[in-house]
Write a structure and sequence with these properties.
The longest helix has 26 residues. The protein has four helices and no strands. By secondary structure, it is an all-alpha fold.
Length: 89
């Protein structure tokens, strides 16, 4: 992996970690808005999938659609398929 791709991978992982940390802080604050904590959880997941795609040599789509990213990732790692499928009702 070249240096530019390593830096991109690292930046996605750092951003995901920051989102997850923010979600934890918001969710443990008695007055923290849970909808904002949930938003940061989604963002952490999205950025983590993008990091995976970069790690596997792809350039992730510029999207916030985690299902779309999971479909792309499932072509490389079948375990992402469960995230790519719509939830059962």
């Amino acid at each position: 992996m070249d240096e530019a791709r390593q830096e991109l991978l690292h930046s996605w992982l750092i951003k995901a970690a920051h989102d997850l940390k923010g979600a934890r802080i918001l969710s443990t604050d008695p007055e923290g808005p849970l909808d904002l904590a949930i938003y940061h959880c989604q963002q952490a997941g999205e950025k983590s999938v993008k990091a995976f795609l970069v790690f596997r040599g792809l350039t992730p789509a510029k999207t916030h659609d985690i299902r779309r990213l999971a479909v792309e990732a499932s072509a490389l790692e079948p375990r992402f398929d469960q995230l790519a499928r719509p939830p059962r009702r």
